[in-house]
Amino acid sequence: MKIVLASNNAGKLAELQTLLVPLGMTLVRQSELNIPEAAEPFKTFVENALAKARHAAQLSGLPALADDAGLCVDAFGGQPGVDTAYYATRFGYPKGDDTNVTALLAQMQGVTNRRAAMVSTLVAVRSADDPEPLIAVGRVVVQIAPERRGSHGFGFDPVLFLPEFGKTFAELPTEVKNANSHRGRAAQAMLALMRERWLDGSAA
């Protein structure tokens, strides 16, 4: 089955493609089909993911999968949340993964409560008008490290410290990260939903 990924993020495509292999699904990035990015005007991950999935399905005529993910920092009242991708721009930096990390480390200076959660909400629709979208959420509690560590992954991975591993996501091998990340957990839940709802539980 071919399914459109309602994202142009290469990191997300690589992670999700690997995670969906067991279902025999092929992810196609929406940019390959000349589909523009959807507006994300909402304040919650699930609303934005649903909007992106319906948009991609509408313009492609294919099933679509969307991910809306973000960093929710306790000391910031859950922010930046749905605005995570643009976090750095709040502080005069250009948009980007590296500048996001730079801005976060600067804002966390002197902050003792470094608890945060990475949240991933996956939404899949069979068509733009699907009345029963599949919704899966993955959440991982982390500590914001005081400096970058590791060279793997993308986004905030170099400063997302997992106490149970004693490492940041960027220090973990890809297979370990995928098994324990917010997106990995959401993808596993989505796999179960797809097997049950879309594939009649017949997929291995």
From TrEMBL:
Q: Where does Mg(2+) bind?
A: 68
Q: Which CDD domains match?
A: HAM1
Entry binding sites for substrate: 7-12, 69, 154-157, 177, 182-183
| Listed InterPro entries | dITP/XTP_pyrophosphatase (IPR020922), ITPase-like_fam (IPR029001), RdgB/HAM1 (IPR002637)
User: What keywords is this UniProt entry annotated with?
Assistant: Hydrolase, Magnesium, Metal-binding, Nucleotide metabolism, Nucleotide-binding
Task: Respond yes or no to whether keyword Membrane is given for this record.
Answer: no
Per UniProt, the cofactor note for this protein states: Binds 1 Mg(2+) ion per subunit.
Q: What does this protein do?
A: Pyrophosphatase that catalyzes the hydrolysis of nucleoside triphosphates to their monophosphate derivatives, with a high preference for the non-canonical purine nucleotides XTP (xanthosine triphosphate), dITP (deoxyinosine triphosphate) and ITP. Seems to function as a house-cleaning enzyme that removes non-canonical purine nucleotides from the nucleotide pool, thus preventing their incorporation into DNA/RNA and avoiding chromosomal lesions.
By what name is this protein known?
A: dITP/XTP pyrophosphatase
Q: Which organism is it from?
A: Limnohabitans lacus
At the highest ranks, the source species' classification is: Bacteria, Pseudomonadati, Pseudomonadota, Betaproteobacteria, Burkholderiales
